[in-house]
Write a structure and sequence with these properties.
alpha+beta, 37% strand, 18% helix
Length: 189
Amino acid sequence: MTTSVLPPWRPLIKAAQRREGRSPSARWLQLATVGQNGQPRVRTLVFRAWTDAHQLELFTDTRSQKIKDLHHQPAVELCWLFTKAREQYRFGGVANVIKSDNNRELCLQKWLSLSPSGRSVWGWPSPGEMLNRDAAFPEALSDNEPMPDHFSVLRLEIDHVERLHLGPHPHHRTRWQRNQNWRTEELNP
């Protein structure tokens, strides 16, 4: 991380992540974009890392529809639910797509951080196209496989966060906004 002072919501997320344990679903979050037709689009991605105090990282395929959505409108919202912790976080901000043609070294580093099975989806045919049952869908891509040009890193620069704690009665809702120096605001649930 490049920023040393964490916003007040980061330790809460870290605690929620610990409560979730090793459950794979604890890393799944939903990314909402706006399509070129103005319609909302939501899909599930895997949390990869915090790259700054208020910036998180995901990986994506530049052949996917979400890249077109982000060119049209880079503002996004993420929803991250921690079921055991009974907490939901909504992050709003701007997504930045880092492609191999503008930062090959970073993309290659992230590519090699994936397991061979984790890399496999980038060896599949273009997402969303008509299914060709004869096409190759590898289960793994080894370290020797070159990184495909369509592998990219997606970084969300967070400008506001809402936490809904579903445990107590009534639920607790809290908001933090970057332009207010991450001041904690209590809201009605």
